[in-house]
Design goal:
Distance between the termini: 39 Å
Shape: globular
Number of domains: 2
Oligomer: single chain
CATH architecture of the largest domain: 2-Layer Sandwich
CATH topology of the largest domain: Ribosomal Protein S5, domain 2
Order of helices and strands: EEHEHEHEHHEEEHHHHEEHE
Helix content: 40-55%
Length: 312
């Protein structure tokens, strides 16, 4: 048995900001994917995944008991499959900000949720919000606190526009120009990042008035503008706002940027060859880059592996 495939995602804009109601834009990234499998595989990965699913099944039982009006699962089938060695076979790197736990949550909901909301029905705003709430509760098992966006993206495999916490919609983004010089790319930091401690750090900083003001007047302002520009295909304006956003992140989110990238980050802003931003919660994993000329960016970032995810 092999379940359907669920893909990784990239939150192009909105990391941290969406906690405080900024806009956000999340797109599926089909390069990485995962599926539930039931063949008895004795690799370390399969055993580790199976053990994690055991704990997850227990956790879902608790959710069902406390919130049966929100979601119910075929727990009997889930537990039976888990005891038969089911695991999540995934190429999505963990701790890289591309939604490894989100894909797993989407796969479990898809297979075991009763009266599930399907991708084929008319997805009203209410249904999307309900799915997001369910996924947020489910994914909290892995992160401590989850917005539910990663699993939603993986489940629908559509770009998602976050207007605010209670207002999300599937959206379309401009078609890629495969001949274009501009690109969005991933830069491998070479280390993993843990979501929970980074979010904890952010929440601590939110206690300071100066940080809250910066978030509202600068970070969220530029994030919202980038989302609008990207969806509407305003490339020139997008890069102006990206430069500002990259600057704000370097000045105020330093702990979330791996130390060895501080210099590269600054270099991009000063040369305009590329602009870097956090991909997910930061602390490691991937860093997201934007450039108007991918050849220039490759040259400036020589020695680093650039993975292009979208062409302008």
């Amino acid at each position: 048995m092999k379940g359907p495939l669920f893909y990784s995602k990239i939150l192009l804009f909105g990391e941290y900001g969406i906690i405080k109601d900024s806009k956000g834009l999340s797109i599926p990234y089909n390069f990485f994917k995962g599926a539930l499998k039931s063949d008895r595989k004795n690799t370390e990965e399969a055993k580790k995944s199976n053990l994690s699913l055991k704990g997850f099944a227990e956790y879902l039982k608790d959710i069902q008991e406390s919130e049966s009006d929100l979601v119910t699962f075929d727990l009997e089938a889930l537990n039976e499959d888990v005891s038969n060695g089911m695991y999540f076979d995934s190429s999505i790197p963990q701790g890289y900000g591309v939604g490894s736990s989100g894909a797993l949550v989407a796969a479990i909901y898809d297979k075991y949720a009763l009266e599930k909301i399907t991708v084929l029905e008319n997805l009203t705003r209410e249904k999307l919000l309900k799915l997001k709430t369910i996924f947020g509760k489910m994914e909290s098992f892995f992160h401590g606190k989850s917005s539910g966006l990663d699993p939603l993206n993986s489940y629908l495999s559509l770009p998602i526009l976050i207007n605010s916490k209670d207002n999300i919609e599937s959206t379309s983004i401009p078609s890629q120009n495969l001949e274009g010089k501009g690109a969005v790319f991933l830069l491998d930091s070479g280390s993993t990042g843990e979501t929970a401690p980074m979010v904890q750090l952010f929440m601590e900083q939110m206690k300071q008035e100066g940080f809250r003001t910066m978030l509202k007047n600068q970070f969220i302002k530029h994030t919202d503008a980038c989302v609008e520009d990207f969806i509407n295909g305003n490339v020139k304006s997008l890069f102006r706002n990206l430069k500002q956003l990259s600057h704000v992140v370097l000045d105020n989110f330093k702990p979330m940027i791996p130390v060895q990238f501080h210099k590269l980050w600054k270099q991009g802003i000063e040369s305009n060859d590329y602009y870097l931003k956090l991909c997910g919660s930061g602390g490691g994993g991937y860093i997201l880059g934007f450039t108007e000329d991918i050849q220039k960016a490759r040259k400036a970032l020589k020695g680093y592996n650039l993975e292009v995810v979208y062409n302008f």
